[in-house]
Amino acid sequence: MTDYRRLRVALLGAGAVGSQVASLLRQHADELADRAGARLELIGIAVRDVDAPRDVDLPRELLTTDAESLIVGADIVIELMGGIEPARSHLLTAINSGADVVTANKALLATHGPEIFDAADQVGAEVYYEAAAAGAIPIIRPLRDSLAGDRVQRIMGIVNGTTNYILDRMDTEGAEFADVLADAQRLGYAEADPTADVEGYDAAQKAAILASLAFHTTVPLESVHREGITTIDKSMMDAARHAGYVIKLLAVCERLNGGADESISVRVYPALVDRAHPLASVHGANNAVFVQAEAAGNLMFYGAGAGGVQTASAVLGDVVSAARRHIAGGVGVGESTLANLPIVPIGRVTTRYQITLEVDDQPGVLATVAGILSDGRVSIANVEQTVVGEDARTARLVIGTHKALEQDLSETVDRLAASGVVERVVSVLRVEGD
Amino acid sequence: MTDYRRLRVALLGAGAVGSQVASLLRQHADELADRAGARLELIGIAVRDVDAPRDVDLPRELLTTDAESLIVGADIVIELMGGIEPARSHLLTAINSGADVVTANKALLATHGPEIFDAADQVGAEVYYEAAAAGAIPIIRPLRDSLAGDRVQRIMGIVNGTTNYILDRMDTEGAEFADVLADAQRLGYAEADPTADVEGYDAAQKAAILASLAFHTTVPLESVHREGITTIDKSMMDAARHAGYVIKLLAVCERLNGGADESISVRVYPALVDRAHPLASVHGANNAVFVQAEAAGNLMFYGAGAGGVQTASAVLGDVVSAARRHIAGGVGVGESTLANLPIVPIGRVTTRYQITLEVDDQPGVLATVAGILSDGRVSIANVEQTVVGEDARTARLVIGTHKALEQDLSETVDRLAASGVVERVVSVLRVEGD
Ligand SMILES: NC(=O)c1ccc[n+]([C@@H]2O[C@H](COP(=O)([O-])OP(=O)(O)OC[C@H]3O[C@@H](n4cnc5c(N)ncnc54)[C@H](OP(=O)(O)O)[C@@H]3O)[C@@H](O)[C@H]2O)c1
Ligand SMILES: NC(=O)c1ccc[n+]([C@@H]2O[C@H](COP(=O)([O-])OP(=O)(O)OC[C@H]3O[C@@H](n4cnc5c(N)ncnc54)[C@H](OP(=O)(O)O)[C@@H]3O)[C@@H](O)[C@H]2O)c1
């Protein structure tokens, strides 16, 4: 066996991901040493409660509640505690004491990324976070390195497994949101408090991270437009299926205009996706990131977006990279945010829409609706009219639009609602993927 | 504008890929400088004929036939000439004169990879080759870095666009191989001499590169079992469709057994893929690499596997990485081949098969066939029998097997052919993807 240099690895957190990382580090120690060119010595694991029951067997003597002492003696610090504090302080301490850091903490990076990257830049350390954007799916290196010579035009990502699981079951089983959510909670696909997932907060954090990388721009979380899936019901799902679409919660990161007016938009919302689009076949709790780049064309990255052992794979890949860098020497490369493109609010974005209305089934109603749309600069691509209700006095209009400005569209929908001929605005959904 | 350090970039070749690389290097010079942290100065382009007509406008004074002189003054050398010589000598010269090298040359890496990687190791240089395995699809970094802490169990890749285009059209249009090939040649999807593609040589080179990376093992091209698609006809396509499969040319890289008996198999052949498998929806000239890893689970990488500008994207990503490494300092990381697992011949591989036979439609024939299979240690999973021919004296048997050893299977098929009850062995196809 080769006599490798030893690198001291400190692990912060031994929960769903951390416990798997600890176990793989020990189980594959020899193989990892060959690949990294260094022996990765786990010097300790910081937790809140050293006596808490754990899924995997961890040597009692490695556990400690004293994270600070652990960090100071480490070459590589892996942060898998989650949350903002003390994770943020621990990462800064690690960087300033000369360690390279690995983290899966999307909440922290989406809010304090620049502070952490700057600290690393100051001392020539490197921050690795492959697991923070799409779990086990390698997406950070592709965006940061493989596409570094290209120009990303658009990213459309299914980056939250819980919501994809819920929407997929609503689609395939014709079930209602609340029933599937309850089932998902029972099966462990959704948390007891599902807000972070179903309201799109988790996806928005990932969108901010992906957009920062793709557009070489600092993207504050507040600039990400966010809508969740709680408004999606069975009738919307059925209508989408009927029209050849499926509803997916998408993180969309888009480059707008060109030249001096160049800007970007970052948004998370449920959208209609054509069933022939590769994203439409992403089922269950899987994730996928679809990337359109100027030279490379369309790329898609698919896999498990979460799960303890799956995410641990991405974390360990980062640990090996950090170790190789320690052996190779040299300073960290840092994040490139020099483009710093302006981020436009949602009102300035153009997409296609599908508007579903219930109207009085009387002559002239369609003409009135069409007039309001055209006055609002929303151009109609197609309309389907069906009669609903026992009395046959109500018609349902499903209107597909050409690309329109979000602001024009929402003002127009308000005017439709107030027009007197519209009984109810059933739904307004964006269409993505073309 | 930041005053960056300059790095001298030499380009060898200005064909389909090289001309696009030259054009993007010049077009996006400022942006690339920001991302790389260095100004990438194209100091010259080596070609065979400086006066040859080119697709893109290249400044006449950059073109030269003297590759050697160009290389000696460069920090980064991009090899896009193709072929073994002089590409091999040029890369070695570049490495030994202190440059980092970028290449898309799968033929060279699959045959002389170890020599080139060793030379780089000696001087601490780095070899980048993202474009050599699947064109624009980022697959090298994911395998080499992102999955470095995991254990790849199997790769199934659609890594040749020409054959996927042909098989896809045969599948969707019910056309014959020769007709689609002729059309593909007319449309530029296939070369005038299509041998490298349709006989699987191109895919075998890529399989060798992917397997080397995935299993940390030197995989000589000769150890890759290779079959092409020229034997696939319309009737096989129709039968596959009928049974819920599609035929794809797959590069399969597989880890076999465990523990001390651990070994790998690398093979390229047309195989039946279930229509529900993500690889079945890879259409046209697109490529995709499906990776199964112990911890990460199933991952898929999808995109354009060829094309001048698409491939140029991957090459430029490598150039930016090489530049960042020049700035950061430190020695190259090198390839990890320390696992060096034994590579088993095709006879030792187990897969499922689908065997199609024409037999005399007489009582007892099925029993005879079943007996020969069971004597040969090939266990039957399902059989479909249909009557064919005007006289109704011939029956067609489609036999799906459980997993069997390739050697047992091929001996058994020989015995079937010689048994007297079998009129014709119509086809024997492997089933992959489960
Ligand atoms: N789970 C996934 O599938 C997944 C996927 C992608 C990314 N991530 C990210 O990975 C990170 C970890 O996630 P997880 O699911 O593993 O979390 P988790 O199961 O909640 O585990 C958190 C661990 O950190 C420890 N910890 C928390 N606060 C601490 C403190 N103040 N001091 C010391 N230890 C502390 C906990 O200690 P005790 O065990 O003693 O309570 C626990 O071991 C998060 O940033 C998450 O967003 C997770
Ligand atoms: N095309 C793709 O889609 C693709 C995709 C992935 C990888 N690749 C790989 O990329 C590499 C380049 O492919 P390509 O399609 O761009 O090839 P190509 O169109 O045939 O271009 C080859 C270029 O190299 C020059 N060249 C060849 N031999 C030379 C010599 N002895 N001295 C000086 N210059 C020489 C040629 O000069 P002249 O122009 O003067 O003839 C030409 O400019 C190959 O290794 C290929 O396998 C290609």
Tell me about this structure:
2 copies of one chain form a homodimer. Helix content of chain A is 37%, strand content 27%. Chain A has 434 residues and is α/β, with parallel strands linked by helices. Chain A has 3 domains: 6-136 and 309-328, Rossmann fold; 140-305, Dihydrodipicolinate Reductase, domain 2 (2-Layer Sandwich); 349-432, Alpha-Beta Plaits, CATH 3.30.70. In chain A, strands 7, 8, 9, 10, 11, 12, 13, 14, 15, 16 and 17 form an 11-stranded mixed beta sheet that branches. In chain A, strands 3-2-1-4-5-6 form a 6-stranded parallel beta sheet, with helices on both faces. In chain A, strand 14 (380-388) and strand 15 form a beta hairpin. In chain A, helix 14 (365-375) runs antiparallel to helix 15 (406-417). The longest helix of chain A has 21 residues, at 308-328. Chain A starts with 5 loop residues before the first strand and ends with a strand. The relative contact order of chain A is 0.13. The model of chain A has no long low-confidence stretch (mean pLDDT 94). Strand 12 (297-304) of chain A pairs antiparallel with strand 12 (297-304) of chain B. Bound molecules: NADP nicotinamide-adenine-dinucleotide phosphate (2 copies). One NADP nicotinamide-adenine-dinucleotide phosphate binds at residues 13-18, 46-49, 52, 67, 80-82, 86, 104-106, 131, 135, 306-308, 311 of chain B. The site of one NADP nicotinamide-adenine-dinucleotide phosphate has 25 residues of chain A, from helix 13.
